[in-house]
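Fold it.
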Amino acid sequence: LLAGYDGTQPFQDPFCGSGTIAIEAAWIAARRAPGLMRRFGFEKLKNFDAALWQNLRGEAERQILPQTPAPITGSDNDRRIIRTAETNAEAAGAGSLIRWSVQDAQSARPNGANGIMVSNPPYGVRLAEVQALHALYPQLGTWLKQHYAGWRIGMFTADRDMPKLMRLSPKRKIPLFNGNLDCRLFLIDMVAGSNR
């Protein structure tokens, strides 16, 4: 949502891991109410109106779309991780809404025009990991420039140097946390014919 996703745009996560971001996108696109699959503590309150609650739940369930208005894809380079993402999507009721693939991020291509990519790419903790990723970031920047003109890119990372190393200028830097890890959501609008 912070990236401007409203469910009508094509959506991609090329570092999808267990699929959380793509599943959230599918729920937004299918107009699925948050918490629809769970119970709440207030249901045990003395003055709880069960009939009203069932009506509200029924109304929310009737608004769910059977398909998303635009494609949603998730990919990762590890087949086992993609199987986990597929299992998670099925458990979340979003299995038929997301197309999964096993591929390197730089092999991904847009699944439509003017879409949104939100991803949590790997960021290293140990020095050797950080150095390897810093060598990869310029390649990721080039890949985005070559293939994703017209897209908004959201990179959620603890690595504050990522945009600079990708040679991209974020439109916004939104502070967020991943557990207790201080992170940023860098929002980058990819412009045709530009290196920024």
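Residues 138 and 164 are 9 Å apart (CA to CA).
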